[in-house]
Each structure stands twice: as C-alpha cells, then as structure tokens.
Amino acid sequence: MGVPATPGCTRRAALMRVGALAVAGGWGCGPAPAWAGAQVEEPLADAVRHALRAAVEQLDPPEPSFASAEERARYVRWLTEASWRLRRRKPELRARLDFLQTVWYESRRAGLDTALVLGLIEVESGFRRWAMSRAGARGYMQVMPFWTRLIGDGDPDKLFHLQTNLRYGCVILRHYLDREGGDLFLALGRYNGSRGQAAYPNAVLAARRRWLLG
Length: 214
Known about the structure:
The protein contains nine helices and two strands; from the N terminus they run H-E-H-H-H-H-E-H-H-H-H.
C-alpha cells in the first residue's frame, strides 16, 4: 500500500512505518516517453572496456552494510526522508524502498553522490522505470542500448531491470567523470550527449539540491 493514500495517514505515521521497515530489513505496462538526450557511442580502449564490463557484472543484492550503529541510523533517517519526498511519484511503499535502497547502494559503489544520482534520474526519466527516449535510451537513468553491446551481454531489454539500469547508469557516469578529470559539468553533458552546453548540467544540479537530505 502506498504511504499517502489513506485519509488518516499522517506524515509522522508514514515516516515511522518506513523507518520500521528499514530497521527490520523488510525489502524484499509499456515504455513511457522520456525527456532525455543520448549518450554518444565512442571508441573505448580495451583496458577501459574490460574495466567497465567488470564493473557491470555480478549484480549482488543491494544490501547495505554499516561500520557502526550511528552510520546505520543516518542511513535510516535518509531513507525515511527520501521515501517521504518520493511518495507521490512512487506511491507503492515496497517499490519505493527497493528503488531508494538500490540507488543508495549503486551510487556509493560507483563513488558517486547519491543526491546527484537522484537528481539525474529525476531529470532523465522522472523516476519512471519504463521510460524510453526518442533516441532509444531506457529506464531510470536513460542508458543507451549500445552500452549492453560494448560492456554487457548485448540484451538491451535488461536495461529496464531496476538494479541493472542503475548499475549501468552509475558506472557510465563514473566513467565520464574520470574521463573529464572530475569536471562534473562536462561529465553530465557527456552523459546526456550535450557536452559543453549548460541546460542539462544545470537541470541535474538543480534537481540534486532537492535531494540533499539532512
């Protein structure tokens, strides 16, 4: 059941429910159009291709691990607040928690800011799993199908799978950041196929600010 759907559901009660599920570890249609650009297929050195291929393989379950109780508590607070903010776009609670947990896991695995990844997803697909752009980019992070041929098994339909899409998207963004020497503006432009133009990076960075949670 979605959090906001019942008249008697208060914000406090909804947040407590999310937090309780997180502590307990209880996570267990056709494509819609998306506003997005298109990553450009570029030659990859063999070493880069092999590294990227290794990075997208072995989709372990996105189970968070924590070094301390304090770190776990911070995660639960983040998950609770992020879930509340996302409730209108993803009204079903379990799906929302699965999505946020996977974003958190994959962004950290790639060394990316989680708020940045959420901002990019908001701009690219509006948090729609089945989004597809006119250029053929797929899923939450609007990954172009050629990436599955370059560094995957060649099956673009897998880009609609939650963790696969986020794994590819985060690995690709990390690759572009490394290629641009850490320049986020250029890396975001390259991700969207609009390198050097301000509109897309500015939109993602503005969306990122909405996901900076205490």
